[in-house]
Structures are given as C-alpha cells and as structure tokens.
Amino acid sequence: MSAMNRRDFLRRTGGLIAGSALPLSLIELAFADEQQNFTFAYISDSHIQHIKGKDFVRNWDRGLIRTVGEANLMDPRPDFVMYGGDLAQLGTKAELDHGLELMSALRHDKVHYVMGEHDYYLDLGEYWERQLGPQWYSFDHKGVHFVVLNSVLTYDEWTHNRWSSGEERMAVMAGLDNPSGSPFMVGEKQRDWLRDDLSMIAKTTPVVVFSHSPLQKIFKNWNFWTEDAEQVQVLLKPFDKVTVFYGHVHQIQYNQIGNISFHSAMATAWAWPYPETYAQVDSLLPKLTVEMNRADPFFERDATGWQFVDVWSGNATLHYSLTENQPRTVAFNPKTGRPEDTVYQNDRIPPQQHF
Amino acid sequence: MSRLSRVRQAAWLILAIVPVVGAADPFTKQDLSDWQSAYDQVVTAGRDAFTDPKLGNNGVVCAQCHPNAANTHPETYPKFQKQLGRVAVMWEMINWCIRNPLEGKDLQPDDPRMIALQAYITQERRGVALAPGKH
Ligand SMILES: [Fe+2]
Ligand SMILES: [Fe+2]
User: Fold this and answer.
1) What DSSP assignment string belongs to A281-311?
2) What is the CATH number of the domain that holds B51?
3) In chain A, which residue's Cα lies nearest the Cα of B93?
4) Is a pLDDT exceeding 60 seen at residue A11?
5) CA of B51 to the centre of ligand 1 (A)
6) Tell me: the pLDDT tens digits for B40-62?
7) In this structure, which of B18, B31, B110, B115 has its CB flanked by the most CB atoms within 10 Å?
8) Of A293-297, A321-325, B104-108, where does the model show the most confidence?
9) pLDDT tops 80 at residue A284
10) Mean pLDDT calculated for residue range A88-110
C-alpha cells in the first residue's frame, strides 16, 4: 500500500479508535520493496468466560466485540488476521463457540489461530482442533514464512498423571499464579517438526513465528516463560530476519535477542501487572521494553486493546490500539537493530513507572 | 504537702486504678506462635477469597487480574483517588473491584472476608516500604 493511503487510514481510524492522533512518524520509512510490504491485524487473549446458560462475562465479551468492530474499520483491509490464543477462559465448547461467533463478525476472510493454555488444558485442544485445525503449522505470505507453534505444552507427567479430570487440570493452569501449575514448553516433537519445516526455507527469507507464551524467559511464576525457549531460538538463529509474536502476557513487551525481534500482544480482556510489581520474586522484563501506562481501574477497557502489524522488508512495526489510552507504536529501528517505541523509548512518562 | 509524699500519693492512686496482678507485659513463645498461626490462617482465608468465583456474581476472581495480588499497592493507602475526588482507604478500592469486574455486592469493612483479603494482599507485599499517598 502507498504511504499516502496508509496515512489517510491512520488519520481516519485514529480518530475513531482513540480520539487522538496515532503517531505517524513511522509511515515515512522508505520501504525496500513496496510489493512485499503488507499489514495484518493481531488480536489476542479475549478469555471469553461462561457464567451459565446463555450468560458470559460481559466485560470480556465487550473487549472482543469492540476489537472486531475496530479491526473492521481498517481500510485498506489487512491481508489477514492472527488470533494469539486464550480465546476461552476455561476451554469449554460453550466458550470457544461463543468466542468464534464473536470473531465471525470480522470482515476478513482469513484468520489464523494460536493455541493458548486456556483453550488447551480442558481437553488438550481436541475441540479447538476440530474447529480450527492443527495446533502447529506454517504458511507463506508475500515472501515471508510464517510459523505457528503450540508453546503451552508441559511435562507429560503433569498433564496426564495428576488430575482426576480435565476440569481440574484446566482450573489449575488457568490460575496464572497457581503454585501447582507447570512451565510451558514447545517440546521435542514440535521442535523436530520446526527443524524440518525451516530446512526448506532460504536463510534470507524473513521468518515470523507466533507462539502463545514468550519464546524467551521473563518470569517463571506467571509462565511469562517457555522452558525450551533457548532450544527454539537456536533453530531460528541461522535466519537473517526473525520476528516472534506472542500473546499470554496481556501487556506490551518487546525485545531483541541476536537476530530475533520479540513483540507481545495486548489482551482484549484485561491487562496484567508487569512482573516486577510482584515484590517477592525477581523477574527479567527486557530492559528495552517501555511499559504501557498503568491501568486505570475506573475505565474497564483501559490498558486493553489489539494491534496491527506492518511487515516491511521483513521487519515489523506494531501499532498498539489502546481503547482508553494513547496508542503506541513499536518499530524495528534499522540503525540500532532493535524494536523501539517511536515516542517513549527515551522519554518515559509517569504512568509508565510500575511498582 | 512535701514533694515526696505527693509522689507517693500519686503512685498509690495509679496502683489503685490499674491493679498489676499478673503483669500485662510478658508473653511467651507459645503466645507468639499462636498469634502467628492465627494471622497465617487469615492470610490463607484471604487467598481463598481472592480466588473464589463466588465472591462476586460472574465467576471472575481477583487473582485473574492481580496475580500474587500484584498491582494492589497496599503501601500507598490512604491516598487520593481522582475518580472518587477524595482520599480513600484500601477496602474502598477492594469494594470497587468487587462491584465492577466481579459484578458483586460490597462487603462491610469488618466482614471477615474483607479483613482476610487485606491480610493476603498485604502479606504478598511484605517488605515494601510504606508510601502513603503515592500514585
Ligand atoms: Fe491470556
Ligand atoms: Fe495465556
């Protein structure tokens, strides 16, 4: 799309979405090969929660409904939509069905889904798979190789031998801070598949990976963590440009490790505290990350939102669309070789101080 | 009256008012451990309430948004709440979260669950310096 169209789009939806101007500076970037640039929408963590009968938690429903409405305003349309996982809260058929029904209001033809632990641990992804297909897969789009992983697996012993029912297992994994939980992992079988899948790809091809948990270690207590993250990173290392997108953390995070850029998605449901706000245990939030503004509890959609991603020359620019707050843009900076916030990177404001 | 007798008279008065029979001060190691376990039980009850789908009316629990009670900042209370337009204490914010995300009914300030919630929240924040009024 031309820079002019893009700017027009941002101006229009900027007014609609946030009531304030989106930062436009990034649109000026000279794209290497216009043909290969494209945009996709990225929605995550809606946690559709069943109460009983036809009742679902209104607050989480509203988050997804609003996001779908905003994503439908994108003009020109993004090439596709990614869903980052945790569509459901407790993985039930009722929740997944209701979530997919809300998602079906999207005007976009193609939605790719990532498995979240809240979708998985009731029936180990069986119903999800029946509705949406394989739990891990890859596809190509305009010269970029996309890989989707199920990163929320864990030790077999934990999954199979400890619980009297799927409900019990799901309830434990659903508690982020539940000490009986277990660390997420991609696992050997999937890593073998990934090695095979990538062996067919030229090292100059940009690779984009989607996982639910971060493929980097940030905070084990809340599973902001993937146990075999380093082993997955090794498989990605030979490629010139790699970008990893993940959900699960319900907040803005970004990082650069070697050749790999990392970006998280906000949740449509609710925001999570940053790990350093738990005073009893150390955590490793990437120093690069400028935190999002602290959530104002008096606005229930504050600090929630969704994002759309410009892929240009194999790099990514994330536009975070916050429903009650200033939008944020985090873009790969070719000069420093890492993602940076286009406004706040060196100049944080008081609400970005978390404690 | 001499100074000495005045002091003596005052001492008798005090003794008459506060009979020092068993002495109030000393407590034993047993006392300490009893009080600690009474406190620990309330913290545990607080964690239970914090993860209880029945505390509110929609099945949502506090821990869903506040893992390990993070972002509850007990050390900052009392503090000015912009939206209330006045200085508030923590149980008022707890009730705000019960009414809104949990779609539930206010707890009385002396409801045992309200006391337990505050014990759990504060326990998870132990060691952090008091910072009343901080935002
Ligand atoms: Fe989530
Ligand atoms: Fe998750």
Assistant:
1) S-----TTPPPPPPP-TTSTTTT-EEEEEEE
2) 1.10.760.10
3) A297
4) no
5) 17
6) 999 999 999 999 999 999 999 99
7) B115
8) B104-108
9) yes
10) 96
Sign (positive or negative) of CA dihedral A48, A51, A54, A58: negative
Any domain includes B9: no
Where does residue A36 rank: exposed (0-12), middle (13-18), buried (19+ CB within 10 A)?
middle
Please give the Cα distance from A195 to B126 (Å, whole number): 46
User: Chain B closest CA to A271's CA: distance in Å?
Assistant: 7
The interface predicted TM-score of the complex, written ipTM, equals: 0.90
3-state DSSP of A91-149: CCHHHHHHHHHHHCCCCCCCEEECCCHHHHCCCCCHHHHHHHCCCCEEEEECCEEEEEC
Q: Is residue B13 part of a domain?
A: no
- Is B3 inside any structural domain? no
Domains of chain A: 6-306+321-341 (3.60.21.10)
Q: Do residues A263 and A254 touch, judged by C-beta distance below 8 A?
A: yes
Q: Is the pLDDT of residue A21 over 60?
A: no
Beta bridge partners of B39: none
Task: Outline where B1-135 has alpha helix (H).
Answer: 3-17, 29-50, 62-65, 90-99, 112-124
Please give the tally of structural domains in chain B: 1
* Full-model pTM: 0.90
- C-alpha A188 chain-centroid distance: 23
Do A125 and A93 touch, CB atoms closer than 8 A?
no
Within a 10 A sphere around the Cβ of A176, how many other Cβ atoms?
22
Q: How far is B46 from chain A (nearest CA, A)?
A: 15
Residue ranges making up the domain that contains B99: 29-124
Alpha carbon of B64 to ligand 1 centroid (Å): 10
DSSP B117: H
Residues 269-298, chain A, touching B (beta carbon < 8 A): 270-273, 277-280, 294-295, 297-298
pLDDT digits (tens, 9 = 90+) for A22-51: 333 333 333 445 667 999 999 999 999 999
In a domain, B14, yes or no: no
More confident residue, A141 or B13: A141
In this structure, how many other beta carbons lie within 10 angstroms of the beta carbon of residue B132? 10
Bridge partner residues of A147 (DSSP): A138, A209
Contact A175 B66 (CB under 8 A): no
